Each structure stands twice: as C-alpha cells, then as structure tokens.
Amino acid sequence: MRVTAVIPTYNEAENLPKLVSALFALPLDLRALVVDDNSPDGTGPIADELGRRDHRMRVLHQKQKSGLRSAYLNGFRLALEGGTDSVLQIDADFSHDPAKVPEMVEHLSGADLVLGSRYIPGGSVDKHWPVWRKTLSAFGSFYARTILNLPVRDVTTGFRLWRAETLRSMPLDRVQSSGYVFQVEMAYLAHCLEYQIVELPIHFTDRQQGKSKMSFAIQAEAALRVWQVLWHYRDLRTAGKSARILR
Ligand SMILES: Nc1nc2c(ncn2[C@@H]2O[C@H](COP(=O)(O)OP(=O)(O)OP(=O)(O)O)[C@@H](O)[C@H]2O)c(=O)[nH]1
Ligand SMILES: [Mg+2]
Predict the structure, then answer these.
(1) Closest ligand to 212 CA?
(2) Which residue has the higher pLDDT, 183 or 220?
(3) Whose CA is closest to atom 15 on ligand 1?
(4) pTM (two decimals)
(5) Would you list the DSSP string of the chain?
(6) Ligand 2: distance of its center to the CA of 206 in Å?
(7) Ligand 1 atom 32, closest CA
(8) How confident is the model at residue 238 (pLDDT cuts 50, 70, 90)?
(9) How far does residue 212's CA lie from ligand 1's centre (Å)?
(10) Could you identify the atom of ligand 1 that is nearest to the CA of residue 95?
C-alpha cells in the first residue's frame, strides 16, 4: 500500500523536520507532500531542503495563506496525479502521533476512509487543553454531526487516511469550506456518497511548538458554516452507511 502524506504547513519550521523524519521511519511505503503557504517563519525553504535530502519528499508552495481547503485540495490533486494507493492527512504540529499511521493503513483494507477519532472509547484529547477548547471541540463535533445527521463521533479530526480511489471519485470541486469545517464537509460528502467510514481511537496532543491559531471567532464561524454544508449537498442526502467504531 503506497501512502502519500499531505501535510499543510503554516509556520511549522520547528515541527516539520521532526515530523517528516518520524513519518519516513515508519515501516511503510510512504511519501510526503508538504503544502506551504509562504510561511513567514521560513517553513518553505526548510521543506525544500528536506526534499533535496530525501526524494520521498515534495513541496508545493502557495503564494499566500489560503486556508485548509486550498492546501488540501491542491495537495490531494498532486498526490493522486503522482500515483498512490492512499492519502494521509496529518497536522504538522505533532497533534497527531505518526506511530498511529500503520494501524490506520491496516484498517483501510475494510474501509474507504479511516478517521483518527478523539471522541470514541479509547480516544482522548490533551489534558493541557484549556476547558473552553475541550468543551467547544466536543460540542462542535456533537453539533455538526447532529445537524448533518452524520454518524461520525469526531467530525473535525484532521488525522485521516483516504483510499485514493475514494478521493478520486469525489466531486472535490464542490467543496467550499476553507476553515476547519473543511474536515466536516469532506466527511459529510464521503458519507453522502455512501463510503464506508471507520473511526480509530487516537490521543490528540496539543501543539508543542508554535502559536495556536484557534479562537472563539473561528469556532463561531464554523458553527454557521455547518448549515451551509447541509444546504449545499441537499441533492446528495441519502441514508448513508454508519461509521464503524474500532476499539
Ligand atoms: N498550507 C496551510 N496550512 C495551514 C493553514 N492553516 C493551518 N495550516 C496547517 O494545518 C495544520 C492544522 O492547523 P493548526 O493551526 O494546527 O490548527 P489547530 O490544530 O486547529 O489549532 P492549533 O494547533 O491550536 O493552532 C497545521 O499543520 C498547520 O500548520 C493554511 O492556511 N495553509
Ligand atoms: Mg494544531
């Protein structure tokens, strides 16, 4: 199984080299594609240097900060063109443990999309997360899955493994959300298209290096966007399949 990790970066100069070496140390046929939005901290040139040292690594440079939608959709396109069997989404800030990836790969044999899930038995979030953030994240997931009738416990997780065929067959040009509702929208679209989604418990660690970009305003905007997602795919709404929860 060939895996291409698409890693969006914005100011991850300290984290990226460590993450990439952790990924390349895994017993997997793995390549990395970094999508950097001209990070002011110089993540882009650092990524280029990593690419010169290891041919498994590629970098896509975008002119300016354009959000997750642009980073991921352009990254997915390149990854699929390059030929791969699966596409991994992973944050650059070590919130997602690279050691979990082989298990995700194993579970992809029985699914179209594997989600690293914080909100199923065995899953957890960093105990250092402030209470407001824990509450909002858990409530946000509950809110989105209730409105969308989406049988997924962790709808905003950014730790995901897609079967390449699944991504190829999705109408990605319809995807509109660019903040972290992008993750909700992609999961909802996959569900509407009746793809099999599996949730695997993960522990989510708060970012170790760099500044958090999360704010109350971002979450409030996301809450409104969920309704837009519901309306946008009204033509696709079906019974869908239930997500399987792995323990
Ligand atoms: N290319 C690109 N990457 C981004 C952008 N915004 C965030 N990222 C990256 O996407 C991943 C997830 O973003 P984070 O900033 O960690 O989001 P978060 O985990 O919700 O919030 P914090 O970790 O608290 O800041 C990280 O690897 C970021 O560097 C963007 O506009 N463009
Ligand atoms: Mg983060």
Answers:
(1) 1
(2) 183
(3) 213
(4) 0.94
(5) -EEEEEEEESS-TTHHHHHHHHHHTSSSEEEEEEEE---TTSHHHHHHHHHHH-TTEEEEE-SS--HHHHHHHHHHHHHHHT--SEEEE--TTSSS-GGGHHHHHHHGGG-SEEEEESSSTT-EE-TTS-HHHHHHHHHHHHHHHHHHT---S-TT---EEEEHHHHHTS-GGG----STHHHHHHHHHHHHTT--EEEEE-EEPPPSSS-----HHHHHHHHHHHHHHHHHTTTT-----PPEEP-
(6) 7
(7) 67
(8) low
(9) 8
(10) 19
